From TrEMBL:
<protein>
    <submittedName>
        <fullName>ATP-grasp domain-containing protein</fullName>
    </submittedName>
</protein>
<keyword id="KW-0436">Ligase</keyword>
<feature type="domain" description="ATP-grasp">
    <location>
        <begin position="115"/>
        <end position="293"/>
    </location>
</feature>
<dbReference type="Pfam" id="PF02655">
    <property type="entry name" value="ATP-grasp_3"/>
</dbReference>
<keyword id="KW-0547">Nucleotide-binding</keyword>
<dbReference type="InterPro" id="IPR052032">
    <property type="entry name" value="ATP-dep_AA_Ligase"/>
</dbReference>
<dbReference type="InterPro" id="IPR013815">
    <property type="entry name" value="ATP_grasp_subdomain_1"/>
</dbReference>
<dbReference type="InterPro" id="IPR048764">
    <property type="entry name" value="PylC_N"/>
</dbReference>
<dbReference type="InterPro" id="IPR003806">
    <property type="entry name" value="ATP-grasp_PylC-type"/>
</dbReference>
<dbReference type="GO" id="GO:0046872">
    <property type="term" value="F:metal ion binding"/>
</dbReference>
<dbReference type="GO" id="GO:0016874">
    <property type="term" value="F:ligase activity"/>
</dbReference>
<dbReference type="Pfam" id="PF21360">
    <property type="entry name" value="PylC-like_N"/>
</dbReference>
<keyword id="KW-0067">ATP-binding</keyword>
<dbReference type="GO" id="GO:0005524">
    <property type="term" value="F:ATP binding"/>
</dbReference>
<dbReference type="InterPro" id="IPR011761">
    <property type="entry name" value="ATP-grasp"/>
</dbReference>
Amino acid sequence: MINILILSAGTRDKVVQYFKEALAGKGKVIATDCSPYAPAIYEADEYVLVPRITEPGYLDKILEICREKQITGVLSLIDPELSLLADNKERFLEVGTVPIVPDAKQVDICFHKYAMYEACKALGFATGRCFLDRKEFYHAVENGELTYPVFVKPESGSASLDIHMAQDQETVEFLCSREDGLMIQEFMNGQEYGADVYIDMLSGEVVSIFVKKKLKMRAGETDKAESFQEEKLFALITDFVKKMGFRGIIDIDLFEIDGKWYISEVNPRFGGGYPHAWACGVRVPEMIVRNLEGQTNVPEIGNYPVGKIMMKYNEIMVR
């Protein structure tokens, strides 16, 4: 029996539904959240209300659920919890549960934007320039290496929070004077894309890539998108992912500028736009279940239709 635990399910109803379909009677999907008003928990076979992730004893509670429910694999749908899973991988393995998340080193790089910038640069992948030192940034502007506008954002963080565009030095100074831990990032004026990528947890091979052209964003998430393919991009993503050492499910943001691809950010989890991939036949939850059964996956890169449009809309649950 394969039992899946989805942590902090929140409003991600579709992901819970997909895992139930992927299991097809082989086991159960158990969901958790700290709120009884998280609709996704009611889509699961079972749910457990848990403390907030920041409360003492949270990890022990999750490990207790894994033991009692005989959980085979555990994943989270929120960023702050991914480090918790990665950092405590051995504790989960001790109770027979596989954390479906990249290793702690890769997760840490993903959540520190300057570290990701340095990793891309060291491996030879194009990415927008980033600066922690304002003087270094101003010097680059004076030398004509880049121009305004630029983004001023927290060096660590997620969900596009506290990101501001600065059109001049005065604005950069004002923003950086208000808080510490900020970074200045080059504005990439090009078409944005997103890639849902699955790296087989057993073989380490990239077995699935789904690319979407982002047509509209809302609150940091893809609101409307179109399925897209390019062999050159598939090769770039495969090379990047293997050199970075990722495993499991990741979501990559990229830009295309004048025919050149730039890597922007990586989220080591299911991205908010993953339902687009599922609707186009890219069934990552089925691949995860196969891995948990001890089977490697056959690569299916680019095995989906082009030009399929995803349009998000609101639904409600009444209980």
